[in-house]
Amino acid sequence: MDEWIDGWSFALWAAGLLNANELRLLRGTVAWPSEESVAILYAESREPQRWAAVAPDATGLLAHARAAAVTHRDALLRCRERAPVWYAEPGELGRPRVPRTSSPWLVGMGARPTPGPSLAVVGTRQLRASDEARFTRLLSEWISGERLEVWSGGAIGCDALAHRCAIAVGQPSFAVLGAGVAQAGPRTNDRLFEQLVERGGGLISDMPPNQHAWRNTFIDRNSLLASCCDAVLVLRAPFRSGAVVTARTGLNLGMPVLVVPGEPDDETALGSNLLAQQGARLCVRRSDIDEVLRESANGTIGELLSAPRVPVPDGGRDGGSASAGAAGAARAAARRAAAASSRRSGGRPTGPPTGLAVSAPGTGEQSSCEVCTALGAGTLHRDELAARAGLTAAELSVRLLELELAGLVVALEGGHYGLTPG
To answer: 281-282 and 85-88: which strand pairing?
Structure first.
């Protein structure tokens, strides 16, 4: 650990200048590890503008990285005073599949995950008191018994509920963070994070230790969370939520995804109910979880679903910025939207969730294409987007949800939307 955090590769990573692909490139050079390797990376990086903006040459780049790494190294050492700290390359974690991340390393605080059944439990942060009591009772029953690692995102609401249920029934639980391990949040969950470590679980992040959270880091966190587990359970997910992103990643990876059905007129369950229409299984009893975990252990889940993969946005890019190829990206997204809709429906028009007014049958694919085409010029507020696509507010809501679930459109702040980067 000490050799790693004192090395120049940690310094580059801590400064946001090293991803997994670049680390592989460095290891392919005969000079690795040395300043000469950094010079090679500086010259051959796929994003030279990112490096040139930091320093005019490799020597200056390394000096900048070492200076930037000081706070991350000190933060990690402070964490180590409270609990064991470990690091691993994603492929070394021993998970059912290689965790989905562009980071060269994962950093953990507490225990390391062990081979065996694991379940990601996700859902809304806005959990009503009545739902909290019901889900606590159900989840505690569903996860008790034989060893089962319970993973979640460490947030308030369903995440915190999942962690607390695991602790209550004696199961290890891991929180995958949207920040570095030294910046675990929210602070209201500080005691919960301590309990995770004390009870045989821990905290995991693919970001430098002192990295603060921001919007795109949670998108990446959701994909990482799903890929670390055998199955995903969605307790309750609204129209737009990180839980839907996590579930969609699971579906794209061919993982079993379970959803607890909600009332058809409950907005906090709209996302999870729609997931049930798009390949997720209903979960109403413990045997539903046992069945998918057995399938996962026996390798009988089947081939990947044909839905488009959820891309992992580049943390250094603004998800709402338009590029020079925006028009081409919009056309490609529109084609993928139509193809995805056609695959889901077997060539037949898809129907909307109950209670939503939508366009006439047969026009869903066309309106999804119109939405993607309108977003090709850049980010738009939903009101302007509805006008350009020729849709009512209700029709646009349905199209946006389908496009978000397909990983083609991303919701931004202030009611704005844009095409997903990548």
So the answer is: unpaired
